[in-house]
Design a protein that fits this description.
The chain is α+β, with helices and mostly antiparallel strands. It folds into two domains: 78-220, NusG, N-terminal domain (Alpha-Beta Plaits, 2-Layer Sandwich); 221-275, SH3 type barrels, CATH 2.30.30.30. 17% of the residues lie in helices and 28% in strands. The protein has helices spanning 6-10, 90-93, 110-124, 172-182, 202-212, and strands at 98-105, 130-134, 137-144, 147-154, 159-165, 187-190, 192-193, 196-197, 218-220, 228-231, 240-247, 252-259, 262-269, 273-275.
């Protein structure tokens, strides 16, 4: 097999800010600030906000799909893995003079972006302008091949939540914070109204962070009501039946099994069935 073209891997070293020497400032936008109720977490393509003139090199990375073309999973670096994020107290979440903003990122780069912003904040001593970076996730119990494991599920793929000082027009500190975040590799822009970043309301922030605090993980199963499954454990092992009910709170599933010419309901643990 021929060697992969060097041009593919060269994109990973692109730094959007290398072509611009001057620091952009936020443009005035007379449009009203609106809520973020129109966010669609699963949308993969997004329009980057025109906060300032953007380096053309950023759009060259939009077609990259990390790890999708590789059959063998690469070794994951520490920043690629879902981190155990700190639980923020209420007084820190609603601290006066601070606002929360959503950032667009390349899908799959959320944790890299978080790690990069935190590292830059540390290096640039910008802790007085950028306070917290959060990848919204929730714990989920995944049932696969008879095994139960807890995984981190992203609530908003392609988005990162950041708490900064309130970004104001013409304020040097605001421009510095915006510039630092916007020029982080993997960030495509702020969620905005026109050219101005839109801060989340207190209700929106509480809704997102409350989901991350859920003590009972949600259960994700690989079958639906009406689908056929095979029983792989217990006295009905190797029987085939159809799913009648799913109780995610108790981790139980009711399966209709044909016994002696009749459909008999059997209640089983999620681990005792598999989809055909």
């Amino acid at each position: 097999m021929n060697e992969e073209p060097a041009a593919i891997t060269a994109l990973s070293d692109i730094r959007p800010t290398q072509k611009k020497k001057t620091t952009p400032t936020m443009s005035e936008d007379p449009s009203a600030i609106t809520a973020l109720s129109d966010i669609r977490p699963t949308q993969k393509k997004r329009k980057a906000p025109a906060m300032s003139e953007e380096p053309s090199a950023i759009t060259a990375l939009s077609g990259i799909k990390p790890a999708e073309k590789k059959k063998a999973a690469p070794r994951r670096r520490k920043e690629d893995e879902a981190p155990d994020q700190e639980q923020l107290p209420d007084d820190e979440i609603a601290a006066p003079g601070r606002r929360w903003y959503f950032l667009h990122t390349y899908s799959g780069h959320e944790n890299k972006v978080r790690h990069a912003i935190l590292s830059t904040v540390e290096q640039m001593d910008a802790k007085d302008k950028i306070f917290h970076v959060v990848v919204p996730t929730e714990d989920e119990i995944e049932i696969r091949e008879g095994q139960r494991r807890t995984v981190k599920k992203k609530l908003y793929p392609g988005y990162v939540l950041v708490q900064t000082i309130e970004l104001k027009e013409g304020d040097p500190d605001s421009d510095e914070a915006w510039h630092l975040i916007r020029n982080t590799t993997g960030v495509t822009g702020f969620v905005s109204s026109g050219t101005r970043p839109v801060p989340l309301s207190a209700e929106e922030v509480n809704h997102i962070l409350r989901a991350m605090r859920m003590e009972q993980p949600r259960v994700r199963v690989g079958f639906l009501v009406g689908q056929n499954v095979r029983i792989i454990g217990g006295p009905f092992e190797d029987f085939v039946g159809s799913v009648d009910e799913i109780d995610t709170e108790k981790g139980k599933v009711k399966v209709l099994v044909n016994m002696f010419g009749r459909e008999t309901p059997v209640t089983l643990d999620f681990l005792e069935v598999e989809r055909l």
